[in-house]
Design brief:
The complex is a heterodimer. Helices cover 55% and strands 16% of the residues of chain A. By secondary structure, chain A is of the alpha+beta class. Chain A is elongated. The longest helix of chain B has 29 residues. Classes of the chains: A alpha+beta, B alpha+beta.
Amino acid sequence: MFSRVVRQTHMYVGLFLMPWILMYALSTLVMNHRAAFKEHYGGSLVRWVKEDERRYTGQFAGQTEPKVMAEQILRELRLEGNFAANMAKNGARLTINRTDPLTPRRITYTSTDNKLVTEKQEFRAQPFLESLHRRRGYNNRYSVDTAWAVSVDVAIIGILLWVASGVWMWWELKLTRRTGAMCIAAGLALFALFTFTL
Amino acid sequence: MTFDKFNRRTHLYVGLTLLPWFFMYGLSSFPLAHKSAPAKWTVRSEREYSLPPVEAGANLDTVGDQLIQACGLNADVRHGAYRDGQGNLQVYMARFITPTRINYSPAKRRATVETRDFALPQILVEMHARGGFEKGGFLDTMWSVIVDLVCIAIVTWVLSGVYMWWHLKRLRFWGTVALGGGIASFAIFMLAL
């Protein structure tokens, strides 16, 4: 009975988490070959394309925090969601990076001429996968981002579960014990070599 | 040997060989996702040192090499030089267990060499983040090759796992529910994030 539970958990968890695991594997590949992608894209991984330019008529009180200003601008542009805001040292330019996984946007507000420029990132496989890979953590105000962080934790638990259940299932197959043990020993030896030399 | 058996054996043996990497990637993701406490560093040496002013667009790797030599360290270790935003330079010499860093302050004309105290979460994070073919020697390149192999193996596990599940006819319904649920959840995240 226990063996059956282990096997089915291994399989069902694997099937459910397939998109996350594929994403992590493919994103690691493209991150491992970042320099090649950079060359492929002509020197820069990301390319911004101007989408919109307008006069911004909204008002901000004197000491409004960049985060609050960014929220107001994103709300008015109907682009609400996770973002990072950065105010230039002289206080004249606010840059908002709206971290949409499919279409990241950069919104620049200049207070001297009340200009609002929206640029979107051209869709490219490398930055798309890398940004998904790096997206994590609970330090945000959007419930969908918290849900994503939970899904990342579930994927981590899933990985550890596969390791444990995989070893269990291998040990149950007496026929493959010897070759399996050799594979484990070879893997561990190689890993130890890297750990102590790199 | 039938394809079915070949598929099962490949799934198993590749998994067992790459087990330490898979385990490391899983375990190291916890401190990355939950921000563990920063590691402690111990000062190994401190010396007076002065570099000519480093221009804004200067190649920091060359400056890093100079600092490593001046501190009497081995430049063969994979390293990178960075500005800390306060006018100081930092050279990070990557090692899994005991990385070294040189903090150079032009204002104080001082270079400080520190090594990181033993901390398992940081060692795992260091392993997790290591990759790429741009820098480092033979072993670094081999590590990056293994990172590629792990990624290819994961994709192979996914495909061979789906193949094995599909041949278990009595588990098809609940398997489809699990697979469909995962794909739908992921797609919702892509649209809602």
